[in-house]
Design brief:
Helices cover about 85% and strands about 0% of the residues. It is mainly alpha-helical.
Amino acid sequence: MAAQFEQWAGLVMNQLIPIAVGGAIGSVLRFLIASSINQRAQGASSVPIFPFGTLLVNSIGCFLIGLFFIVLQQRFTHHSNFDLLRGLIMIGILGGFTTFSTFSLETLQLMQVGLWGKALLNIIASVGVCIFAAMAGIGIGRVLA
């Protein structure tokens, strides 16, 4: 019983707390950046605009997750804090920062008001740009590592 508690306490301290803290940081950053950009783009219009803020946040997040995937893998795999860093940065901060659920909702909202072209553009741009950003992050991570 004591060994199970020790194992659980280690999991909480070394992985769950960093993931939770990182998730909070990433979520707040996503909100501040995406809502600021979307509000500027929306202006006084009542018609939904293209979700530039979400696309930007997801693109940056995909780039960074590719970059940190390589950097952490090549520089910290055997480091005692590898799981803590991976949990904090990749799962927590970047997991909270990027948001597929918001992308899906904004795309659906564009469809519901008949803005099919913008919805399709958002799908193509989000998937294409984010895959390219992750690939660029991996490439740059390999150069840096």
